[in-house]
Amino acid sequence: MKKIAWITDSTSCLSNDRAAENNIHIIPVSVIFGEEIYKDGVDISVSEFYEKLNSGGIQPKTSQPSPAEFAAYYENLKNEYDCGIAVHVSGKLSGTLNSSRIGAEMADFPLHIVDSKITSDAMNHLLLKGIELEKNGDSPDVIVRKLETMADQVKGYVCVGNLDQLHKGGRLSGASFFLGNLLQIKPILTFDDGALVPFEKVRTQKKADDRVLGLLEAAMDRGSVSGVSVVYSGDREKAENWQQQLHEKYGITPDIGQLSPAIGVHVGAGTLGIFWFEASIN
Known about the structure:
Residues 170-183 have low confidence and may be disordered. It is built from 11 helices and 13 strands. A 6-stranded mixed β-sheet has the order 10-9-8-13-11-12, with helices on both faces. By secondary structure, it is α/β, with parallel strands linked by helices. Helix 4 (96-107) links the parallel strand 6 (83-88) and strand 7 (111-115). Helix content is 43%, strand content 26%.
C-alpha cells in the first residue's frame, strides 16, 4: 500500500481541527487588501475578514498559491509520502489546480489531482470519501476515478445575500446592480460543470430561499442525494434554520460550513447556499 498525502486549498473551508484529525494538508489562498497580504485561515480569521470587508475600505482581491509555493510544500511531503491526492476548487473558478500540478512537477512529487468542480464544504465530502476509500484498501488510481465520478454528480445553488460585492468585484454591471437593488432582485447562482453561472433571478430573499430549498427537496424526493451541506457567509443563524427545516422534513442533518475569506471576497456577507451529490437515475 502506498502512503497517500491528502491535500486541499483553503477554499474548502476545512477547519484546522478537522484537517488535523484526518491528516489533510491545506494550502492557503492569499487575500489582499491593498498592500496587505493575508494567508486565508492563517493570517486572518473569518470574523476579522468580514470586519475589514464591511468597514467600507479597500476592495479586497485574492491570489492563488504560486507553483513555487506548492513545490516547496511538496518537497516536504516527499519525505513522508509515496504520492498525494489533491482535491482543489473548480479549475473554472481558480488557477489553483494548475499551480498545484506545476508545483508537483517542479518537486517531482507523484500527485493525483481531482477537480472538485465546486468549492467550499462539498470539497470536504470528496476528501473524506477518498480517505475512507484509502482505509478500505483502494489504490490511488481507483480512489481518483471514484472521486472524479462523485465530482461529476455535485450540485450547488447559491443565494447571493447582496449585490454589492459582485458589483465591486466587476462581476455585475452598474446597470444590473442598480436595477437589482431597486427591484430587490436576488440572483441564484449554480455550478455548471465547474463554472459558476446565473440560474434564476428571484424577487425577495424569501422567494430565493424557498426556490433553493425546493430544488434540494425535489432531488431528495427522487431518492438520489448524499453529502448535503449548507454554506453561508456571516449569517449562521439562517444556515441553522435551513438545517433545521431539512432535519424536520427529511430526518437529515446537513453539515454547515462557513465560506472562507477567499470566497467571501467575491460573494460578500449574507450569502447562503446548499451543495449535495446526486447520482444519476437509471
